[in-house]
């Protein structure tokens, strides 16, 4: 179940990133995170911390609830 939650979260982040027209590289620059970390999060391979989730939300001009929408179902 937890892996599925991470995949849903990653899909939300990827969708928002693509909607904003950002590459993983550009999102990494905006957040100060490494590009491979962003990729791992988007694939559901990383258990992201709340602080890094907040960094991503800020860079994507989204709320934390937007990033986590549908993750708990």
Percentage of residues in strands: under 5%
| Number of E-state strands | 0
Instruction: State the helicity in percent bands.
Output: 55-70%
Shape: globular
Which class do the helix and strand fractions yield? mainly alpha
Q: Per CATH, which architecture?
A: Orthogonal Bundle
Assigned CATH superfamily: lambda repressor-like DNA-binding domains
The end-to-end span amounts to: 10 Å
Q: Low-confidence parts lasting 5 or more residues at pLDDT below 50? A: none
Structure description:
Residues 13-67 form the HTH cro/C1-type domain. The longest helix has 18 residues, at 2-19. This protein has 73 residues and is an all-alpha fold. It has helices spanning 2-19, 24-31, 35-42, 50-59, 64-67. Helix 2 (24-31) crosses helix 3. 66% of the residues lie in helices and 0% in strands.
Topology, element by element:
Layout (H helix, E strand, L loop, with lengths): L1 H18 L4 H8 L3 H8 L7 H10 L4 H4 L6
Helix pairs in contact: 2-3
Keywords:
73 residues; single chain; 434 Repressor (Amino-terminal Domain); 66% helix; mainly alpha
